[in-house]
User: Which sequence fits this backbone?
């Protein structure tokens, strides 16, 4: 089991969801707040894997947050993203969440999300 120190949660983040069919008649992206929390955001590998001669989604960051019931729902029904403002530069970043979160240790204390950066709106 991995041990996480709550002191490493130094970055305020907003986790948002786009329900299925979240584009209105003017093609505006509709995002709703899931939760605002403190997180630890760490860069992951920087390579893009190629399988069967096509690019695969590359995880660029991992986001660790405290386990909350709102975050434990399956992601099949919505696209989720993480928004945060970099404490050092003041730049806003949007990370698309790739797949469901992992309940680290299975005790309902921590959730880790694999994320992908590089898209303007998180999808």
Assistant:
């Amino acid at each position: 089991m991995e041990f996480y120190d709550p002191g490493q949660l130094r970055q305020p983040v907003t986790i948002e969801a786009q329900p299925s069919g979240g584009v209105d008649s003017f093609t505006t992206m509709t995002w709703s707040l899931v939760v605002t929390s403190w997180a630890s955001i760490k860069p992951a590998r920087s390579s893009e894997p190629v399988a069967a001669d096509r690019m695969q989604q590359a995880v660029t960051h991992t986001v660790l947050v405290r386990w909350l019931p709102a975050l434990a729902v399956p992601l099949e029904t919505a696209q989720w993203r993480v928004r945060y403002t970099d404490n050092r530069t003041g730049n806003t970043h949007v990370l698309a969440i790739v797949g469901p979160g992992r309940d680290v240790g299975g005790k309902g204390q921590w959730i880790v999300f694999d994320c992908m950066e590089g898209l303007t709106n998180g999808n």
In short: The beta strands are 11-19, 32-43, 50-51, 54-55, 61-66, 78-85, 92-97, 102-104, 110-117. The radius of gyration is 15 Å. The CA atoms of residues 30 and 92 lie 18 Å apart. The chain has a mean pLDDT of 78.
